[in-house]
Amino acid sequence: MTETNKKPYDLEKRTYEFAKNVRIFIKKLPRTVSNIEDSKQVIRSSGSIGANYIEANEALGKKDFNMRIKISRKEAKESIFWLKLIDVNNNEELERERVLLSREASELTNIFGAIVRKSA
Question: Domain 11-119 falls in which CATH fold?
Answer without folding.
Answer: de novo design (two linked rop proteins) (1.20.1440)
